[in-house]
C-alpha cells in the first residue's frame, strides 16, 4: 500500500501534542509506511506544518511550505518523474533539491485537553509544485480524516495509488474517496497565458465531481489586492531576484502571497530559493538571517513577530494585513522607508528604498480599480492581472530570446564528420545594441529605463538560470541536428574506405550518440533514431564474425 511513485508524493499525518509548558510537535503517522524521511526533514516538517502560536488560526486553515531536501538522500525514488519533466513548462519542473509541503490544519476549542485546543495537521509532501491541485486533494480527505483517523487515510492512499501517471497534456480522472477530480497538467507546448479548459461531457462524465481549471495557479488578484498599485515594482523585484520578505498574519496569507510573487514573472522560472512559510525553527534560519553578509536572493513568507527585528536589515519588506474574501477590497498600502518598520505590528506597506526602472503603467491600475468599483469577480481580476504580467514578462524576454537565437551556428556549418559546432558567446554589450531597433518598445507601451533593467537582470540568478536552460536546449538541438546529418550519410560506403579499427571506433561513437539521445531526451525525430540503429546493424554485419560478437554485446543496437 502506498502513494504512486510517479506522483512523487507522500502523505504524513502530523498531530501536535502540547503540554502547558511545551511546544513540542510530533509526527504521528506516515503513509506510505516505507517512506524514508531523515531526522532533519522530519523536524522541518513538524515545525512548518503548524501556524506560529501568535497567528490565532481557529477552525480549518490551508497553506503551503517548501523545504530543502537533506543531502545524501537517494534520488531514485523520484526518477519516474524525470520522464514527464521534459514536457512540462520550465516553471512547473520539479526541483531536485526541494520538497513542497501542503498543509490542512485544524484548531478547535476542546476543554478536555490540557491546552484547551485540538490541533492537528494533515500534510502532503511532494516534489511537484501543483499548489491548487494538492490543496483540493487535502480539502477532500482532511476533514473526514480528523474524524475517522488512520483507516480513512489508508483508504485515501489506496485510491491515490491507482491514479494514472501525471502525464503533461493528458486529461486525468483521479478518484479520491468517492469523488472524481478531472484535471489537465500543462505542457511546454501550450501557448503561454492560455488555460486548456477541461470540458465536462454530458454522458461520459456523470461521475465527475470536481473539475480543476488549473493545477498550480493561486488567486493572483486576491494576493496582490492590497498592493496592486505597486504590482509593477514588485514584478521588477522578483524578476531581478532581490531579497524579499512577506510579513503576514497567518501562514495561508504568507504562502499565497509568496507563491503569487513567484508566479508573476511566468513563463520565466524564478530560479532563486523561495519559502512560502518560514519559521525560526527552519534548518536554514541562521543562513538566511545572518548579518555578516548581504541578504541572499530569496523570497521568505513569515508570520512570527520576531522576524520584524531579525530581518529589518533586508532591503525589501512587504507587510500585509488579513487578506479579504473575494469581493472585499482592503485599503491600498503605501511604499514606506525601511527605517519606519519597527515591529510586525507596523502598518501594512511595502517597505523599500527601491526606485523602479520602469514608469508605472496607469492603464492596468485604472482597469483593476474599475473592476473593484463594478464588483468584478476576483477570478476575472486575476485573469486581467495575469495577462498584464505575462505581456510585461514577454516584452522583456523576447529581445533576449531573439539575441540568444542569433548565437546558434548556421545549420550548413554542421558536418557529420566533425563535432557539433559551439554556440557563440553571449556578449552583454552586443545584446544592448540590439535593443535600439528590436527592444521591448515594439511590444510594450511602458516607458522607462529598460536598458538599466536589462543590465541589472543580466547579473541576477534568474538570468543565470534562464540562460543555462536556453544554452542546454540549444546545445541539445545542435546534437540532434548532428545526429540527423549522420543519418543522411552513406555510412556503409564510408566503412569500405576505412580500416576495421576506424569502423569499430565509428560504431562505438554512434552507439554513444544513441545512448546520449535517449538519456538527455534530445529533440530527435523517431525515424532518425531508427535510421541510425539500421546503419549500426548494417556496419556490424559487414565486419568479421569475431568483431560482430563483441560489438553486439556493447550497448544497444
UniProtKB/TrEMBL annotation:
Its Gene Ontology cellular component terms are: recycling endosome
Q: Which InterPro entries match?
A: DENND6 (IPR024224), Tripartite_DENN (IPR037516)
* Domain UDENN span(s) in chain numbering: 9-477
User: GO MF terms on file?
Assistant: guanyl-nucleotide exchange factor activity
Could you say which protein family the record assigns here? Answer: Belongs to the DENND6 family.
Q: What is this protein called?
A: DENN domain containing 6A
Amino acid at each position: 500500500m502506498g502513494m504512486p511513485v510517479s506522483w512523487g508524493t507522500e502523505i504524513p499525518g502530523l498531530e501536535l501534542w502540547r503540554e502547558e509548558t511545551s511546544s513540542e510537535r510530533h509526527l504521528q503517522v506516515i503513509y506510505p509506511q516505507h517512506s524514508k524521511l531523515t531526522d532533519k526533514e522530519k523536524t522541518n516538517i513538524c515545525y512548518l506544518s503548524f501556524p506560529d502560536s501568535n497567528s490565532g488560526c481557529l477552525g480549518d486553515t490551508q497553506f503551503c511550505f517548501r523545504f530543502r531536501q537533506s543531502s545524501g538522500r537517494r534520488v531514485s525514488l523520484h526518477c519516474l518523474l524525470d520522464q514527464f519533466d521534459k514536457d512540462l513548462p520550465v516553471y512547473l519542473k520539479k526541483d531536485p533539491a526541494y520538497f513542497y509541503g501542503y498543509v490542512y490544519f485544524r484548531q478547535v476549542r476542546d476543554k478536555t485537553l490540557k491546552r484547551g485546543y485540538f490541533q492537528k495537521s494533515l500534510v502532503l509532501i511532494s516534489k511537484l509544485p501543483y499548489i491548487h491541485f494538492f490543496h483540493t486533494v487535502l480539502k477532500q480527505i482532511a476533514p473526514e480524516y480528523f474524524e475517522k483517523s488512520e483507516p480513512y487515510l489508508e483508504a485515501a492512499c489506496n485510491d491515490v495509488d491507482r491514479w494514472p501517471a501525471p502525464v503533461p497534456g493528458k486529461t486525468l480522472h483521479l478518484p479520491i474517496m468517492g469523488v472524481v477530480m478531472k484535471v489537465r497538467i500543462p505542457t511546454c507546448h501550450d501557448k503561454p497565458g492560455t488555460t486548456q479548459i477541461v470540458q465536462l461531457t454530458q454522458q461520459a462524465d456523470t461521475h465527475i465531481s470536481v473539475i480543476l481549471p488549473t493545477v498550480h495557479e493561486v488567486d493572483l488578484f486576491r494576493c496582490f489586492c492590497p498592493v496592486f498599485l505597486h504590482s509593477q515594482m514588485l514584478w521588477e523585484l522578483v524578476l531581478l531576484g532581490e531579497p524579499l520578505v512577506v510579513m503576514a498574519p497567518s501562514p495561508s496569507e504568507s504562502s499565497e502571497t509568496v507563491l503569487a510573487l513567484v508566479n508573476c514573472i511566468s513563463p520565466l522560472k524564478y530560479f532563486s530559493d523561495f519559502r512560502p512559510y518560514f519559521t525560526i525553527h527552519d534548518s536554514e534560519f541562521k543562513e538566511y538571517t545572518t548579518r555578516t553578509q548581504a541578504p541572499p536572493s530569496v523570497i521568505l513568507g513569515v508570520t512570527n513577530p520576531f522576524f520584524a527585528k531579525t530581518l529589518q536589515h533586508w532591503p525589501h519588506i512587504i507587510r500585509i494585513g488579513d487578506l479579504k474574501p473575494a469581493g472585499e477590497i482592503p485599503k491600498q498600502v503605501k511604499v514606506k522607508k525601511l527605517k519606519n518598520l519597527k515591529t510586525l505590528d507596523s502598518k501594512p506597506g511595502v517597505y523599500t528604498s527601491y526606485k523602479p526602472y520602469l514608469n508605472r503603467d496607469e492603464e492596468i491600475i485604472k482597469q483593476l480599480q474599475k473592476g473593484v468599483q463594478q464588483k468584478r469577480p476576483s477570478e476575472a481580476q486575476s485573469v486581467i492581472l495575469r495577462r498584464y504580467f505575462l505581456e510585461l514578462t514577454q516584452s522583456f524576454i523576447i529581445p533576449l530570446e531573439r539575441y540568444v537565437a542569433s548565437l546558434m551556428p548556421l545549420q550548413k556549418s554542421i558536418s557529420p564528420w566533425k563535432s557539433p559546432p559551439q554556440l557563440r558567446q553571449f556578449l552583454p554589450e552586443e545584446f544592448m545594441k540590439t535593443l535600439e531597433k528590436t527592444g521591448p518598445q515594439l511590444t510594450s507601451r511602458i516607458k522607462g529605463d529598460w536598458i538599466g533593467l536589462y543590465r541589472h537582470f543580466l547579473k541576477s540568478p534568474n538570468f543565470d538560470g534562464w540562460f543555462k536552460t536556453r544554452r542546454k536546449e540549444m546545445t541539445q538541438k545542435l546534437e540532434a541536428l548532428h545526429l540527423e546529418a549522420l543519418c543522411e550519410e552513406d555510412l556503409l560506403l564510408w566503412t569500405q574506405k576505412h580500416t576495421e579499427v576506424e569502423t569499430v571506433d565509428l560504431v562505438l561513437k554512434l552507439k554513444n550518440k544513441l545512448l546520449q539521445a535517449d538519456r538527455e531526451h534530445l529533440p530527435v525525430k523517431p525515424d532518425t533514431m531508427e535510421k541510425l540503429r539500421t546503419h549500426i546493424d548494417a556496419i556490424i554485419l559487414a565486419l568479421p564474425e569475431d568483431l560482430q560478437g563483441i560489438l553486439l554485446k556493447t550497448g544497444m543496437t
